[in-house]
What we know:
Radius of gyration: 17 Å
Largest sheet: 8 strands, parallel
Amino acid sequence: MTINCKGQLIDLTIPKVMGILNVTPDSFYDGGIYKNNSDILEHVDKMLNEGATFIDIGAYSSKPNAVHISETEELQRLLPILKLLTDAFPDILISIDTFRSNVAETSINAGACMINDISAGKIDENMMATIAKLKVPYVMMHMKGTPQNMQQNTSYEDLLKDILFYFSERIEAAKALGIVDIIIDPGFGFSKTTAQNFELLKHLEVFKILEKPLLVGFSRKSMIYKTLKSSAADALNGTTVLNTLALQKNASILRVHDVKEAKECIELTQQLKL
Length: 274
């Protein structure tokens, strides 16, 4: 339950928070909000001060039916922000949300320390070999297809068994290449209906069998606001509820837009383990 980020050992036995920074114009909740350097620096400084261990930068929107962009455009969005943050916060631990091996390698060489891949190496066949070469932590998420068609891929013989099999295969492929620090993300909202998302959460503890740290991302997603008949803007309370349930079911990292509230979830649920 310890991962190595730039030589720093991060103990995940006490859950950590990963703050989200989207530098895309079309992300479902915060797309286009952070348009200039001062806004970005202020937001990241706030997340770090509120207790984020990692900052996850996304330059390719992975919401359902997201617009596909080129690798060049992804890097053009990403690299200036990566330089801005590593210059301003020399000790920052940055995760890069990408499924492209070249983007991953370029970003790590520019100061990032972790790769968060929504496809677990299935979209870019060179990704895992690249991660092995870079020797960085690797978040592998469950998804079928691509962001453009994933919500047409929600059929399963057995939801939990199928996802467990997926991770077993992906973990073995990663380990065979020498990847050491593996984190799994069951992919709430990716290739899953609302009912399937809640079924997955209900049985989240089954992923203990894989013996890998578990990252969850519920933050302001449609499984919350569609159920509550509200909106992403009104989904913070629902996010807090689901984060709390996930922590009770072995989650190690909460990936969120709202760091303070997630950190409070961790602090309170830790009291149950004293």
